[in-house]
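Quick one, C-alpha cells below. Sequence please?
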C-alpha cells in the first residue's frame, strides 16, 4: 500500500500552531492565542512530534523549552507563514499609499480633455509609487481580449451597446453637438437637417474594417447619410481643423466645450444638431479576471470619482 506523502499530513493551521508553540513555549497559552481548547493543541503537538520524530518542547523546571530541533524549525516556520500571508494579502487589501502597481487604462480620445488628466492626478496623488499607462483604445475586436489577458485593466469609451461579456459601469452621459468655425454660415442663418447632412463633416479614421461610430450608426438607423469629406486619426486635432475651415465636427458637448473656454475669444462655435441624437453614454469596462482584485477595484473607483467631478454642475 502506498504511503501518504509528508505534505498530505501537514496543513497551514498545523504550521501556525507549531509557530505559536515555539514562541509561547506553552500548550495552554497557545490554545488561548488560537482560540482553541487545550486538548486540541495537545493533539496537534502530538502530530508534530510524530512528523519530526522529536519532542519539540521539553520540560525544564516549571516551564517548557524548545529542543534544538524545535529552535532550528522556528526560522523556516516563520518564513512559511510570512510567505502565506504575502501570497493571499493582495486579494484582501490594497494600500494605495505604499502600493507599487502598474495600472493600464485604454481610453477613447473623444473623452472630455480634462477627464484623463483628472484620473492621472488622482492616482498619482493617492498612490504615488504606482505607474500609470494610458493606451489608445484598441479596435473593438481586441479590447475584450486585452482585458482578458491582463494587458489592460480597464477600458473607457462610448458604445451604444457595450460587450455583454464584460463587466461595465456607466460613467456619464453627454449631449451630441456640432462644433464649427465661428465663420461657418450656419452660425448666422442656422441649418436644417438637409443642410447639416450636406455640410462637409470631419470624422475619426475607422478603428477597424467596418467601423462606423455612434454618429453614423444612428444615422444608418434613421436611413440618413452625412457627407464626410475629411477623416483624421487624431481626435484632438479636429477642433483646430474645424476652426480654419467649413468642416463640421459632431461629438459630445463636454469635449467641444473645452475648446470654447478661456479668456481669449474663440474662433469656434457650438451648434445644436438638427438631427435628433440619443445621448452619448460613456462606460468603463473590465474583465471577470480583475473583478474582485482590490487594486483593480480601487482604480475603477478613481475613474468613477473623476467622472462624477467633471459631470457635476459645479465642474460644468
Amino acid at each position: 500500500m502506498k504511503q501518504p506523502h509528508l505534505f498530505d499530513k501537514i496543513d497551514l493551521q498545523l504550521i501556525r500552531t507549531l509557530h505559536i508553540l515555539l514562541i509561547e513555549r506553552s500548550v495552554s497559552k497557545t490554545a488561548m492565542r488560537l482560540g482553541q481548547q487545550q486538548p486540541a493543541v495537545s493533539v496537534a503537538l502530538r502530530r508534530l512530534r510524530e512528523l519530526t520524530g522529536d519532542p519539540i518542547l521539553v520540560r525544564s523546571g516549571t516551564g517548557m523549552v524548545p529542543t534544538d530541533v524545535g529552535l532550528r524549525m522556528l526560522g523556516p516556520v516563520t518564513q512559511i507563514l510570512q510567505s502565506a500571508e504575502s501570497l493571499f494579502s493582495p486579494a484582501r487589501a490594497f494600500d494605495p499609499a505604499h502600493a507599487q502597481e502598474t495600472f493600464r487604462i485604454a481610453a477613447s480620445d473623444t473623452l472630455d480633455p480634462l477627464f484623463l488628466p483628472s484620473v492621472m492626478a488622482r492616482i498619482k496623488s493617492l498612490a504615488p509609487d504606482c505607474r500609470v499607462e494610458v493606451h489608445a483604445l484598441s479596435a473593438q475586436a481586441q479590447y475584450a481580449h486585452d482585458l482578458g489577458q491582463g494587458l489592460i485593466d480597464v477600458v473607457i469609451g462610448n458604445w451604444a451597446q457595450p460587450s455583454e461579456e464584460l463587466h461595465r459601469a456607466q460613467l456619464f452621459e453627454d449631449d451630441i453637438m456640432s462644433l464649427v468655425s465661428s465663420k461657418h454660415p450656419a452660425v448666422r442663418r442656422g441649418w436644417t437637417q438637409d443642410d447639416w447632412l450636406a455640410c462637409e463633416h470631419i470624422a475619426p479614421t475607422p478603428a477597424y474594417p467596418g467601423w462606423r461610430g455612434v454618429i453614423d450608426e444612428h444615422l444608418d438607423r434613421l436611413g440618413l447619410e452625412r457627407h464626410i469629406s475629411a477623416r483624421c486619426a487624431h481626435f484632438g486635432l479636429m477642433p483646430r481643423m474645424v476652426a480654419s475651415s467649413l468642416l463640421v465636427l459632431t461629438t459630445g458637448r463636454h469635449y467641444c466645450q473645452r475648446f470654447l473656454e478661456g479668456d481669449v475669444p474663440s474662433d469656434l462655435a457650438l451648434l445644436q444638431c438638427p438631427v435628433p441624437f440619443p445621448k452619448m453614454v460613456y462606460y468603463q469596462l473590465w474583465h471577470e479576471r480583475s473583478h474582485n482584485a482590490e487594486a483593480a477595484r480601487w482604480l475603477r473607483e478613481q475613474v468613477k470619482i473623476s467622472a462624477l467631478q467633471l459631470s457635476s454642475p459645479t465642474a460644468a
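Residues 92 and 294 are 7 Å apart (CA to CA). The mean pLDDT is 88.
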